[in-house]
UniProtKB/TrEMBL annotation:
Residues 397-666 form the AAA+ ATPase domain. InterPro entries: AAA+_ATPase (IPR003593), P-loop_NTPase (IPR027417). It comes from Terrabacter lapilli. This is AAA+ ATPase domain-containing protein.
Length: 677
């Protein structure tokens, strides 16, 4: 047929516009990244990835022994997604992406966040001249002459318009298959198609131009009439029918959610759907509940998407996030629920289609060796290097250390001073660090202006002194005892090139219950073991429980993975003790007596040997306080103990006794001096 005369707007959409004209010889990683930017742009949602491995041909179709699906937050996990695609492709897998962002972790038809493009999967010879007339972009799918074509729109369209435009685009290009949905999976450039032997590259045929079409003009050019927006929503979106419900029999939580009118109908819809989801109602029943409230029903009728389904999927994703560990490496051999049925494994020694089973096994073995490298015993025996220290004795290289204390003792202050010293290669507590290290400080406790800046200024530092200290203040990380939190932190470590990570405080960095051992086992399994295997040193800060003698608060497993545990104790307002209570490596100095100085700058020093004992220092400090505040010299033990408690000082009976004796001795000396004088 004769190609219609086409007109497009000049609007350039999204961050991909500036990257549209990449070099023709860009590598796989660049091809993947440019594709992600092109199809997802500036939207927010979850990108869905599917990975098939153990490939073989059966009846002309590619079957997989393993089919694993996962999702990534866009744009927060952009680089992580691109790296996963490139790694899986390099490992010999077939990789697919949904070119539309979803509202949740489910890849359901009609659940796209928005539809700002149309696509077609061409199974015949791709006519690139026709793609150029549409100012579209195209990807060779790896089958001879076949490809995927995309055309950008300058605004989102409802599902019915999207489907009509996709069908029309397929007819215009010819030989298009039935992939016209917003949950389709397509091959991204930078990967491989293993239908043929040897595998064929999936690559750009036409790069994005940055030109976006007005949907109405594109419909005219393709010769299709779009459904009227005035049609009932049920006809324009793939929604399931609503099921009538008896409001009086609904769970109390659902009735309460319906009764609460916040003035924000979007928020109210999400709250009602979430309550229905959590109390076990079906999606159809949830639609009936939402439709029973007039203002919410009016809002839904004015929309061209399935907002109830969007909220339902978001609720599913939110409720499952804490308990579901996403398999980011896609290495599990068990297909997820809802994935295409995997073909049975070939019998030993047999060949399926044109892909030998032995070759697939060989690929799987190579992947296993890459992901789980074994120790080289000869190399280990030949390694006679001594324990490396970033700071001796507090921070060994590549290990995990805890400093804990009661609240308000000053562990964050000590940790901040050490973090800056490590980042600058300066002296700290008498130890010359020497080399500079990149430090990532993850702070869930301290206000950046009122605490962090004021402390750094008191230490005498300026912004120019802190170029190797990367400080995350109240970061919106998922719990580090979850796979998602682990991926987020590891991505920050990768981006900033961190060699040391400080977590302040660890109890605020997890989602699980603090007293549950599962929480701390999850923290180690998901995050700490990965940091250790990457050679990253970790310093984490923690609090004591009500009984300070029992160590860190929380489950006993909290201490199981660390290499050294240090307890910080206040002796006086200026004197502290750091004591190593447990370690799995040899530490020659297990007790440090610290003094905090305010002038000429805020810093800590280690007291020399032979200095006054902790007991004597506490007695002298309490005597000074008693005298300064006019406590009677005749005060008994209870009075002295009560006075100390009002100053936040915990004292033993021996300290109280020596305070009383010292004060009476001072009085006696004064009397004698006055008499003799």
């Amino acid at each position: 047929m004769t190609a219609p005369t086409l007109r497009a707007t000049d609007q350039v959409r999204g961050p991909h516009a500036g990257r549209a004209r990449l070099e023709e010889d860009c590598g796989p990683a660049s091809a993947v990244a440019s594709y992600l930017d092109a199809v997802f742009g500036e939207s927010d949602g979850r990108a869905h990835l599917a990975v098939g491995s153990g490939q073989r041909l059966e009846d002309g179709k590619l079957r997989f022994r393993s089919w694993v699906q996962s999702s990534f937050a866009w744009p927060a996990e952009r680089d992580l997604l691109a790296r996963n695609v490139a790694q899986e492709a390099a490992a010999g897998a077939d990789v697919y992406l949904c070119p539309y962002l979803m509202a949740g972790s489910g890849r359901a038809k009609g659940a796209a966040v928005e539809r700002r493009k149309v696509h077609a999967d061409v199974d015949g010879q791709l006519d690139l001249d026709r793609v150029d007339r549409l100012s579209g972009y195209a990807v060779a799918s790896g089958s001879a002459g076949h490809g995927h074509v995309y055309v950008d729109l300058d605004r989102p369209v409802p599902a019915a318009h999207h489907e009509a435009l996709c069908r029309a685009l397929g007819r215009y290009l010819g030989d298009a298959d039935a992939k016209i949905s917003d949950n389709d999976l397509l091959r991204p450039p930078g990967t491989w198609n293993h239908k043929a032997a040897p595998p064929r590259a999936v690559a750009w045929r036409r790069k994005p131009t940055g030109i976006a079409w007005d949907p109405e003009l594109l419909a005219q050019a393709l010769g299709v009439a779009l459904p009227s927006p005035d049609l009932p929503q049920a006809l324009s979106t793939p929604m399931a029918a609503a099921e009538p419900v008896d409001l009086d029999t609904l769970p109390a939580r659902v009735r309460d959610a319906l009764a609460l009118v916040s003035g924000d109908r979007s928020t109210d819809t999400m709250r009602v759907v979430g309550a229905c989801h959590d109390t076990g109602l079906t999606l159809a029943q949830t639609r009936g509940v939402v439709a029973d409230r007039a203002d919410l029903a009016e809002r839904l009728a004015s929309r061209h998407d399935d907002d109830v389904l969007r909220c339902w999927l978001k609720a599913t994703d939110s409720r499952a996030e804490r308990t579901r560990a996403r398999n980011d490496e896609a290495d599990s051999l068990q297909a997820l629920d809802g994935a295409p049925a995997a073909a049975p494994s070939p019998a030993p020694g047999t060949v399926a289609g044109t892909v030998p089973g032995a070759a697939a096994d060989e690929d799987a073995a190579a992947r296993t060796r890459r992901l789980f490298p074994r120790i080289d015993w000869h190399q280990l025996w030949a390694d006679d290097t001594e324990e490396e220290w970033i700071h001796h004795p507090l921070l060994p290289a590549r290990r995990s250390v805890v400093i804990y204390s009661p609240p308000k003792v000053g562990k964050s202050l000590v940790a901040l001073e050490m973090a800056v010293a490590v980042s600058r290669g300066d002296m700290f507590l008498g130890y010359a660090i020497g080399a500079r290290h990149r430090v990532l400080y993850v702070d869930f406790e301290n206000d950046p202006r009122g605490d962090v800046r004021s402390r750094l200024q008191a230490m005498g530092y300026t912004p120019d002194d802190l170029d190797h200290l990367d400080y995350l203040s109240f970061p919106r990380l998922a719990g580090l005892d979850t796979e998602r939190g682990s991926l987020e932190l590891l991505e920050a470590v990768r981006v900033y090139g961190s060699q040391v990570v400080v977590i302040d405080t660890v109890s605020r960095a997890v989602d699980g219950e603090e007293n549950s051992n599962d929480t701390w086992l999850g923290l180690y399994r998901h995050t700490l073991v990965k940091l250790k295997s990457a050679g990253i040193a970790v310093l984490r800060l923690d609090h004591t429980g009500k009984d300070e003698t029992k160590g860190q608060r929380g489950g006993s497993a909290k201490s199981g993975d660390v290499d050294a545990i240090w307890r910080l104790t206040r002796i006086t307002e200026e004197r502290f003790r750091l004591e190593c209570t447990d370690s799995r490596l040899q530490i020659s100095t297990k007790s440090l007596h610290l003094r905090r100085h305010q002038l000429p700058r805020l810093h800590h020093t280690v007291e020399v040997l032979g200095a006054v004992s902790d007991h004597d220092a506490k007695v002298a400090h309490l005597v000074e306080l008693c005298n300064a505040n006019g406590l009677a010299v005749e005060a008994n033990r209870d009075a002295v103990r009560t006075f100390a408690a009002t100053r936040g000082i915990k004292v033993s009976g021996r300290v109280v006794q020596d305070v009383i004796r010292t004060r009476k001795g001072e009085l006696q000396r004064e009397f004698t001096s006055a008499r003799d004088g």
